[in-house]
């Protein structure tokens, strides 16, 4: 936080000097030139990194400092409280409003006054648009009341910026149509992950990147040759642990995992896909999230042959997403049931492809025992060893079966899960999956 404090002080000092110079020029009391922006440093400063990553130009930094002033240095806005002797009111051209909690609130009009060249003003309006660097980059909220009253639309800090940069806390946005991602959580632990040793070893390699990826990128020679970030494909039948592994990778590495809802990604409105995904990727890079694309073949599969204009736009949107995935400096995990469904051109960009197989009898027994850790809840006639040998269920199907059997026990007020109720739960799960029951317990 020390580096951030120093950067904030330099930015606010610059704002004060810029305000003084602009007011002097406006009232003809001086011809001071606008001061030059301070140098963004060091690289360890989260604020400096965020500004560089979002490519915020100097005029954008000045607007951000203006929005920060009411919170961090309200006295910097005192020159805007100068009263017009003709009206005994604050000069209208400053467009300063009162904050509900007290103090002055800078607005779009305040920014337009401070930036007194047409070029800077146009650049500011662009940065304050929904796709602009300050809004899309998560620094400021979209302007309210831009149509009317317009210039009085307040410059407001985005909650994620306040949390991440000013308070050092994590921002966890809620799922919504224009933010098609939801945080993936689990109460399970890494020890609960029952997978073959080969699969566990490959997952450990993903974890190794979370610890050593930055050092690898800085290594002479190889650092120049590799793409930023890490991309891994999880493939295998449903219920084999792909989603759970993604959640546990986040838990082990101390990173939030966000699952992207692909049904909301590709919009019928041309260009909306790029906007929605940009919000997710920009915040993921800023917060260090892991992104998880489930059923990825629906988006990253083989390209559509162009037969009509909609196909062309669909392929353009997919190309945009592929490029964002390739350029993403963090971890992207993609899951599919069939590896062959993924476009070969994109498959080459993965750093790893991890196969998730259906569990063998020994693994099934371990999962059954995890689902029934308290043996006294099982009736004496239930033989989990035989069950694991005879009925080929995936890990997800075993968990669903155990849930159904436990619920049946609780509804009946019974002390144990009986063999009959477990057989019924297995039959239900097999029927749901379109399978035939092989044997009961």
From TrEMBL:
Residues 228-360 form the AAA+ ATPase domain. It comes from the Bacteria. Pfam families: AAA (PF00004). Keywords: ATP-binding, Nucleotide-binding. SMART domains: AAA (SM00382). One of its GO terms (molecular function) is ATP binding. Belongs to the AAA ATPase family. This is Putative ATPase. It comes from Dinoroseobacter shibae (strain DSM 16493 / NCIMB 14021 / DFL 12).
């Amino acid at each position: 936080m020390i580096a951030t404090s120093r950067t904030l002080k330099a930015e606010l000092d610059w704002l004060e000097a810029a305000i003084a110079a602009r007011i002097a020029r406006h009232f003809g009391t001086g011809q001071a030139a606008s001061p030059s922006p301070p140098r963004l440093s060091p690289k360890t400063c989260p604020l400096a990194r965020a500004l560089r990553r979002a490519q915020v130009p100097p005029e954008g930094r000045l607007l951000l400092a203006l929005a920060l002033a009411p919170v961090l240095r309200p006295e910097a806005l005192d020159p805007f409280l100068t009263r017009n002797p003709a009206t005994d009111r604050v000069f209208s051209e400053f467009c300063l409003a009162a904050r509900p909690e007290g103090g002055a609130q800078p607005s779009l009009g305040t920014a337009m006054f401070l930036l007194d060249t047409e070029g800077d003003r146009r650049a500011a309006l662009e940065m304050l648009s929904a796709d602009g660097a300050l809004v899309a980059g998560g620094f400021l909220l979209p302007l309210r009341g831009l149509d009317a009253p317009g210039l009085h639309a307040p410059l407001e800090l985005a909650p994620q910026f306040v949390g991440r940069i000013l308070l050092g806390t994590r921002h966890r946005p809620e799922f919504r149509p224009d933010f098609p991602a939801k945080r993936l959580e689990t109460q399970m632990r890494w020890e609960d992950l029952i997978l073959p040793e080969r699969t566990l070893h490959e997952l450990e390699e993903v974890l190794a990147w979370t610890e050593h990826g930055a050092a690898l990128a800085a290594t002479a020679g190889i650092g120049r040759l590799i793409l930023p970030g890490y991309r891994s494909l999880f493939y295998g039948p449903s219920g084999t642990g792909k989603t759970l592994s993604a959640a546990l990778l986040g838990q082990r590495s101390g990173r939030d995992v966000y699952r992207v809802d692909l049904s909301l990604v590709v919009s019928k409105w041309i260009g909306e896909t790029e906007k929605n995904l940009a919000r997710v990727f920009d915040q993921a890079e800023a917060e260090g999230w892991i992104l998880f694309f489930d059923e990825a073949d629906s988006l990253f599969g083989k390209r559509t042959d162009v037969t009509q204009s909609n196909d062309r736009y669909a392929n353009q949107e997919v190309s945009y997403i592929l490029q964002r995935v390739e350029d993403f400096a963090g971890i992207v995990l993609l899951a599919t049931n069939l590896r062959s469904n993924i476009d070969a051109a994109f498959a080459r960009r993965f750093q790893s492809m991890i196969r998730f197989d259906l569990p063998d009898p020994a693994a099934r027994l371990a999962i059954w025992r995890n689902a029934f850790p308290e043996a006294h809840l099982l009736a004496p006639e239930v033989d989990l060893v035989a069950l694991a040998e005879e009925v080929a269920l995936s890990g997800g199907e075993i968990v669903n079966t155990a849930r159904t059997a436990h619920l049946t026990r609780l509804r009946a007020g019974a002390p144990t899960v009986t063999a009959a109720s477990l057989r019924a739960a297995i039959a239900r799960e097999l029927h749901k999956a379109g399978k035939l029951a092989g044997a009961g317990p």
